[in-house]
Specification:
The chain is of the alpha/beta class and 210 residues long. It contains 7 helices and 9 strands.
């Protein structure tokens, strides 16, 4: 099964609250974006947005240039329909751009001030795909912008959604991104899945230097 079919199947057959990565509220992600993006007119892209509330919460907080990218049309349909039914979506439907695309072949049409990825990179377990990820990141993030990247930690899960993942520590991420990205902050944290399992995550925040 190819990646698009895999994720379409998940989001077409499961309630968003049933998947292991579900968050009732994207509290951590929202806080990180808000901390590194004070100018709310600047662009922010949520990579692997799925059915997350993050894009909606950003618009509700006054951000006006938000993009949500995911491989799954079904996932973004859940998020977009929920947003358009909300007060913010009724008033400002244009504030979120819904991008159904494979990240590895995506051609961004603007440069963003913040790149947010809660759990995409760790699914890329070969050097070619990882290099393509860094190329997309470099194309999409403006110099001086910030990348917020969350992955499974070295003591986190080895598989997710039936797929083997790549675990990371901050140094491994430093080496992958290279000298164009300066590490600003590294945070280790735990996510509790809907069934109560604890998953160890590593978030690293970078600033693009050139």
């Amino acid at each position: 099964m190819d990646s698009r079919t895999h994720w379409e199947s998940i989001y077409s057959t499961k309630n968003p609250a049933q998947v292991s990565w579900f968050e009732a509220e994207p509290i951590r992600s929202f806080g990180w974006v808000a901390a590194y993006l004070q100018d709310k007119t600047q662009g922010v892209v949520d990579i692997g947005a799925g059915a997350s509330l993050l894009s909606q919460r950003l618009v509700e907080a006054g951000y006006s240039n938000v993009s949500a990218l995911d491989l799954s049309h079904a996932a973004l349909q859940v998020a977009s329909m929920r947003y358009l039914a909300s007060e913010a979506g009724t008033k400002s439907p244009e504030c979120i751009q819904w991008l159904v695309s494979d990240l590895l072949s995506w051609k961004p049409t603007q440069q963003y001030a913040v790149w947010h990825d809660r759990a995409v990179l760790h699914f890329l377990d070969n050097a070619m795909d990882q290099a393509a990820y860094v190329a997309r990141l470099t194309a999409a993030l403006k110099p001086g912008g910030h990348a917020i990247i969350s992955v499974f930690a070295t003591d986190g899960p080895t598989h997710c959604s039936g797929i083997q993942v790549q675990q990371y520590d901050p140094l491994m991420l430093d080496n992958l991104l290279g000298k164009s990205f300066n590490r600003i902050e590294a945070i280790k944290w735990q996510h509790r899945t809907p069934n109560g399992t604890e998953q160890n995550f590593q978030t690293v925040i970078y600033q693009r230097t050139n």
